[in-house]
Amino acid sequence: MIPCLPKLIDPSQGAFVDGRLMLDNVFLAQELLKGYSRKHMSPRSLIKVDLRKAYDTIFWSFLEKILMAIGFPERFVKWIMECVSTSSFSISINGILHGNFKGKRGLRQGDPMSPLLFVICLEYLSRLLHNRTNTTAFKFHPKCGKLKITHVAYADDLMLFSKGDFPFIKVLIDALDEFGNVSGLKLNFDKSSIFLGELTDYELNYILHMIDFKEGSFPVRYLGIPLAHLKISVAQYAPLLDSITNYITAWNTRTLSYAGRVELIKSVIQGVHSFWLQALPIPKAVLDRITYICRIFLWGCKCARVAWADVCLPLEEGGLGIHDTHIWNSALLAKPLWDIHTKKDNLWVRWIHGVYLNGRGVWEFTPHKRDSQLIKKIVLIRDQIVSHFDNTQAAIDYLDTIHTNGKLSSAKVYNLLKIKGETHICMSFIWKNYIPPKFSFTAWLAFRNRLATFDNLHRLDVVNICPFCKGGPETVPRLFFACPFAGNIMFGIK
């Protein structure tokens, strides 16, 4: 089934289909929202739809019919329906399972086949919308007419687009109602909303009176990312900063070694914000705040032992290998740049070529003042990448060597964009797999001359003398090599 989906499923669906990404829908939705803030533009509407208990309400009869209609063999369909319809359920009361009853509709949560079947069911809505809007009477959302875009969907998160007049909005709503009646997938009006642009107060009130949707407000969260008709403000990144802060407060820094904190920053904290960083050009103030949160978590106080710029150096250059968030944001946004260059069948890429590029390549394109922040950022990253090579073709050839199955390696782009420093041979001896990380971290601090030796604590007005041998000031070289007491311990280690 999986190999068939890219050919069967409409390009507007981005979930569970090979070669399609969640962020493609985010990029396209953000581009279409850009015109909602401008005056003297044509009317436009966007309906954000949430389906109520999507997986639990699909009619089995509908699923079987659409599998047959798409062209799957009858025998294969019977196997699928046997898997779906033989499920049974029990109720847990005080930890004890009671009863056993069979379901009559819905897909099992956690079944690896369920997402694929849901996408196939949603294909009915895609074809229904295309059929209803494939007339000269229907007016598409601005900048959607060339590709006849009516919606984007990621599983049960849908966005529908049309011109902002009631007859065209009603076409979309009627299609949703018909889809709900035949499939069992009903709208959740509490979580659904409509956004209208460039309408008079009378037109706005009339449309809201005629439909059951509430009027939405910007920014709107779509697939976890805030989308807005204007540039997203720093305050609107609060959910991102809060999620990082919540992760940190869940850990007790007093019981974590420095090495443990480094690993948590690399694997957890930077993993949390990477999704945002690859979806949006994050403002510098937000990136600086993320850096501040990570720095405080690493050192446990406002007094850092090593400058953050040095912490973000690669291991071989004397750093800890933590990503610089500013460069990492650019490296992640190099992916859509490469997609625009290579994925000509992608819906968002086709939209970019039709609206912005108009027959030109992304490597020659110059953005205008009123173009989106995303496209301006992508062009800026393009210029940064090209600046590392003799010409544009050399940059393209390099990027062509650092992708796997069409996916650009963000780590290698990061290494390209980051200024190269001096390599220290001793770092290869410090960071060994067989050395406990906390010992490697101590050796790294010694290399940086940032251990809490008396010569580094002179501001505290302490007596700078080695507490072991009393033979001179306590420095890193004396602590590890010159002090006879420390030397005896070092030689005694087997």
From TrEMBL:
InterPro entries, alphabetized: DNA/RNA_pol_sf (IPR043502), RT_dom (IPR000477), RVT-Znf (IPR026960)
Domain Reverse transcriptase per the UniProt entry, residue ranges: 1-227
Pfam families tied to this protein: RVT_1 (PF00078), zf-RVT (PF13966)
CDD domains attached to this UniProt entry: RT_nLTR_like
SUPFAM superfamilies referenced in this protein's UniProt entry, alphabetically: DNA/RNA polymerases
Stored PANTHER family: REVERSE TRANSCRIPTASE ZINC-BINDING DOMAIN-CONTAINING PROTEIN-RELATED-RELATED, RNA-DIRECTED DNA POLYMERASE
Protein name: Reverse transcriptase domain-containing protein
